[in-house]
Amino acid sequence: MLDALGVDAVAEAVYRALLQHPTWGLHELVAHLGRPEDEVRASLDALMRMALLRPSPDGGAAGPYRPVSPEIGLASLLARTEAELYRRQQEIAAIRKAIAAIALEYDAIRGDRQAAFERLDGLDAVRSRLEELVHKARSEYASFTPGGPSAFTPPEARHQLDRRALERGVLIRNVYQDGCRNHAETLRYAQWLAARGGQTRSCPTLPMSLVIVDRRVALVPLDPAEPRRGALEVTAPGVVEGLCALFEHVWAISVPFGEAPADGHGLSPVERTLLRLLLDGVTDETAARRLGVSLRTVRRTMSSLMSRLGARSRFEAGARAVQRGWL
């Protein structure tokens, strides 16, 4: 019970016994506790060091030890323990600051030395970098995945990365080839993702594997025919913008998993209804209730629509949807 204060079970039993029988000496304690004499003697020494026992001032007439009152002795131990905990907390806080500083230095060094294109050789290098990018993602994670599960990340690792991103409110959009609709693992992943607010579509063909994070960095395969050879990390704004445009074009003509085919403008029924509700001036909460989906899904879908429309506000998105004949 008092282990947290540094008092083990035997020492605690000795202390309690002396509080009840202050005249007892070593032999009485050994007989009462049924413990070896050297063990009881060691506990007495430990209690003396912790100031829970003091030598009897009368030379032993009233017993060789005088137990210190728990209100004083244990309270003093507790205060020392609390002080030690506070010191450790301060050390941990300092360590956290040091880690943050080192991470900033690493990012700065990486930023200084990183060119607009960086080669990542081999699957391990790609997976390691992809894990870093998804961990830092703040708004969106989009991908093309030809031929089934991602060549860049195995299914179990993909689930872990996506779960963490979704928990931070990151929008995840994936496009597969139509043939993957008959792939059991891909269907399970699409259902898992949809249940958490992610979006999955398919189209007849895809140009290559592609990952875009926050519309600022992209990964493309070194060899589209063999993605496992590695990838090229692209940060050049013009190239990334072109890849984003490619993704949006393919996304618009792709068909959502588990939904009716999109209309001539690439809109699913949910997206078209959401745009109509937007023009009606309803709130996100009301739209979520009417559509029977979560508030997070409404906001992610709206974010996707605004991105496709190139709109900076919802009012502008509604106006552009009308101009393009979407409504």
**SSE order, as H and E?**
HHHEEHEHEHEHEEEEHEHHHH
The CATH class label of the largest domain is: Alpha Beta
Number of strands: 10
The SS-based structural class is alpha+beta
Question: Mind describing the biggest β-sheet?
Answer: 8 strands, mixed
Rg, alpha carbons? 33 Å
- Integer average pLDDT: 81
Question: Could you characterize what this model shows?
Answer:
- The protein has 327 residues and is of the alpha+beta class.
- It has 3 domains: 3-68, Arc Repressor Mutant, subunit A (Orthogonal Bundle); 116-258, Endonuclease Chain A (Endonuclease, Chain A), CATH 3.30.870; 260-327, Winged helix-like DNA-binding domain superfamily/Winged helix DNA-binding domain (Arc Repressor Mutant, subunit A).
- Helices cover 54% and strands 14% of the residues.
- It has 12 helices and 10 strands.
- The protein has helices at 9-20, 26-33, 37-49, 70-113, 123-136, 155-167, 184-195, 237-253, 269-279, 284-291, 295-309, 314-323, and strands spanning 53-55, 65-67, 117-121, 140-145, 171-177, 199-203, 210-213, 217-221, 230-234, 255-256.
- An 8-stranded mixed β-sheet has the order 3-9-8-7-4-5-6-10, sandwiched between helices. It has a two-stranded antiparallel sheet with strand order 1-2.
- A hairpin with a 3-residue loop joins strand 7 (210-213) and strand 8 (217-221).
- The radius of gyration is 33 Å and the shape is elongated.
- The model has no long low-confidence stretch (mean pLDDT 81).
- One of its GO terms (biological process) is regulation of DNA-templated transcription.
- This is Regulatory LuxR family protein.
